[in-house]
Amino acid sequence: MMNRRLFIRTVATGAAVLAWTRKGLAATYDLVIKGGRVIDPSVGLDGVRDVAIAGGKIAAVEANIAGDITETIDARGKIVAPGLIDIHTHAGRSKEGPPLALRDGVTGWVDAGSAGADNIDQIAAVARGAPQIGRALVNIARTGVTSGGELLDINSANIDLARGAVVRNRDVVVGIKARLSNNVAGPNDLEALRRAQEVASSFSLPLMIHIGQSYSPMRAILPLLKRGDIVTHMYAPAPNGILDDQGRLFPEVAAARRRGIIFDFGNGVLDHFNWDVVERATGQGFWPDTISTDWNVMSKTTGVVDFPNVMSKFLMFGMPLSQIVACATVNASRVFQSFDDRGTLNVGAPADLSIMELREGTFEFLDNYKGTRTGRQRLFPAVTVLAGRPVQGA
Ligand SMILES: [Zn+2]
Question: Residue 307: in which H helix or E strand, if any?
C-alpha cells in the first residue's frame, strides 16, 4: 500500500511533469474559437473565453488559449454556445432537412412523430444519413401525421405495430408521440394516450404529447403521463390548455412539472401558441423546460424562421439569455438519453457548437395567430461547428 509520504511525492512529480509539458511542448489544437461570449449553462459559464478543439472534442475552455493551432474562428462580439438540440422538429421528412437545420446551429434533432409504424423506416433512414445526430419518435398512429386527423379512427393507434416500429429502429427511435388536439384525435384522445403510453412504457421510453384544443381537459390528460414524458405546445390556447378561464395556471399543471413532466415550447405554425398565453403563463413563473421549433424545410417562410429566432421570442418576456440557451442545449440533452454527452462544452464532449449573433434593433416576432410583437434583440445563426469542423455554406 502507498504510504502518505510516497503519495505526496508522487503528486509532486506529476505536477512537475505537467509544468514541463506546458513549457516544453505546445498544446496542439485543430480549431480555436477566439474571444466569444461563451454561454454554457451546463457548467454555469457566461463569460469571454476561447474554446479549443482537438480530435473532434472540446479540449479546453479558457481565456487566451495559445499553442499550435491549425484554424481559428474570430468570435469576438458573438455568442458561443453548445450546439442547439431541437427536440421537436420534422427534420426527418426528407434528406434535405437535416443539412438545412445544421446551418441554423442545430447539431441534434428529434423528428417528433412525422411517421408511425407504416412509414417510420424512411424517417429512420434520413436520421441515419444525417450529418448531425438525428433521432425520431414513433407516432402512435400507424400513418404518422395526416392532415385529416390521424387518430379520428382509433384503430390507427395499433400497439403491436408501434412496438414493431420501435424494435426495427432501436438505434434511432427514442420515444413515442401522440397528437391529442380535437382535430387530430377527437374524443379518442385519452384512449390514444393510453395506447401510446403502453408502448412507451414497455421500452422505458419517454412519450411526447402534443396538446392544445383537445377534447379532454389537462386534468384528465396529465395523470396518464410518467416522469420524463414531454408536453409540447405548452402555451396552446384554449380550449383545454394549461390556463383556466381566468388565465390562472391549473394547479395540476404545476404539479405535473414537480413530478418530472417536461414542458416544451414547440413553436409550430397553426394553433400552438399565442402571445397572450405566453405572457400569462410566464407571468406566473411557468417558463419552458425546453425550447423547440416544430421545424420543417418550409420554416424559413413561417413564424419559426430558424431556431435562434424562436429562442429570441423569450428575450421579449424577460427570460435571461443563459436560461434560453439552457432550454435549447443542456435541458434538451437531458430529455433523451441519446444526447447525454451533448448540450455542453465540457472538456471531452463532442465539439458541436452554435455561434450566434445577438443583434440589437427592432425585430418583429410572430405567434400562430398572426399576432406580432416587437422585440429589441434577436439571435441570428452565424457559424455552426459540428464534430470540431465549421460547417460550410452556413
Ligand atoms: Zn410537430
Answer: helix 307-312
The C-alpha cell 379520428 sits at: 152
Ligand 1 centroid–CA 232 distance in Å is 8
Listed in sequence order, the DSSP H helices in 78-188 are: 97-103, 120-129, 159-168, 182-185
CA of 294 to the centre of ligand 1 (A): 5
Ligand 1 center to 320 CA (angstroms): 26
Q: How far is the CA of 147 from the centre of ligand 1 (A)?
A: 12
Distance between CA atoms of 293 and 283, rounded to whole angstroms? 22
Mean pLDDT of 315-327: 98
Q: Tell me how far apart the 2 most distant CA atoms of the chain are, in Å.
A: 76
Cell of 321: 439569455
Task: List, for residues 224-253, the tens digit of each pLDDT value.
Answer: 999 999 999 999 999 999 999 999 999 999
Q: How far is the CA of 88 from the centre of ligand 1 (A)?
A: 6
Q: Enumerate residues 6+ apart whose C-beta is below 8 A from 83.
A: 105, 106, 107, 108, 132, 329, 342, 343, 352, 353, 354, 384, 385, 386
User: What is the Å distance from ligand 1's center to 213 Cα?
Assistant: 15
Q: Rounded to 5 degrees, what are φ and ψ at 87?
A: -85, -5
Cα angle at 178 between 96 and 306, to 5 degrees?
Answer: 35
pLDDT digits (tens, 9 = 90+) for 150-199: 999 999 999 999 999 999 999 999 999 999 999 999 999 999 999 999 99
Contacts of 219 (CB under 8 A, 6+ apart): 250, 252
pLDDT in tens, 13-36: 444 444 444 445 679 999 999 999
Q: What is the pLDDT of residues 108-125, one digit of tens each?
A: 999 999 999 999 999 999
State how far the alpha carbon of 57 is from the alpha carbons of 42, 76, 159, 213, in Å: 16, 22, 40, 44
The mean pLDDT value for 115-139 works out to 98
CA of 87 to the centre of ligand 1 (A): 10
CA-nearest of 382, 379, 373 to 310 is 379
Instruction: Measure Cα distances from 53 to 25, 125, 190, 360, 391 in Å.
Output: 17, 30, 48, 30, 15
* CA 342 to centroid of ligand 1, rounded, Å: 23
Residue 198 CB neighbour total at 10 angstroms: 16
The CA 179 to ligand 1 mean position distance, Å, reads 9
